[in-house]
């Protein structure tokens, strides 16, 4: 049985991994982001999000093509801001943040977001997004 100290150490390590993932994403280093994912990652966009049409995305290539490439193609800019990482036990990390983005149609949004990450052996095995999809969809349909 793991001790509390072991659990705290693991939670801190997992938080550091996710922090590195966000830093890589912020600099556009998508290969590093994808490399932090397990080959069998299960990725889910929030229900009601336009990108949820492929849920669940399985594997880094599915995330790249079904989510990241579409975000890049459909946005003038897409930034993550005010990221706060919350350590959790059981190989989970919660991130609260905001999306600051502009669709190519001119629609702008600033939306409250939560990302729920699950890790195993230093790799992300699952992702669940929670976001105000009405804000995203209103901006998309401007």
Shape: globular
Could you estimate the helical fraction of the residues in percent? 25-40%
Number of alpha- plus pi-helical segments: 4
CATH hierarchy: architecture: Roll
> Could you give the order of strands across the largest sheet?
2-1-6-5-4-3
The rounded Rg comes to 15 Å
Determine the strand fraction and express it as a percent band. 35-45%
Distance between the termini: 54 Å
**How confident is the prediction overall: mean pLDDT?**
95
Write the layout of secondary structure elements.
Layout: H1 4-26, H2 30-35, E1 37-44, E2 57-58, H3 60-74, E3 75-87, E4 92-103, E5 108-120, E6 123-131, H4 133-140
Parallel strand pairs: 1-6
Antiparallel strand pairs: 1-2, 3-4, 4-5, 5-6
């Amino acid at each position: 049985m793991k001790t509390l100290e072991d659990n705290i150490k693991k939670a801190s390590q997992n938080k550091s991994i996710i922090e590195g993932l966000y830093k890589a994403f912020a600099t556009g280093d998508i290969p590093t982001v994808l490399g932090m994912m397990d080959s069998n990652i299960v990725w889910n966009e929030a229900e009601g999000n336009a990108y949820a049409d492929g849920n669940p995305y399985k594997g880094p290539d599915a995330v790249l093509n079904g989510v990241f490439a579409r975000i890049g193609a459909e946005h003038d800019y897409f930034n993550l801001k005010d990221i706060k990482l919350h350590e959790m036990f059981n190989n989970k990390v919660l991130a609260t943040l905001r999306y600051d983005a502009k669709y190519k149609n001119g629609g702008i949004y600033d939306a409250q977001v939560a990302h729920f990450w699950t890790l195993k052996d230093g790799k992300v095995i699952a992702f669940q997004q929670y976001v105000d999809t009405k804000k995203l969809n209103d901006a998309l349909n401007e």
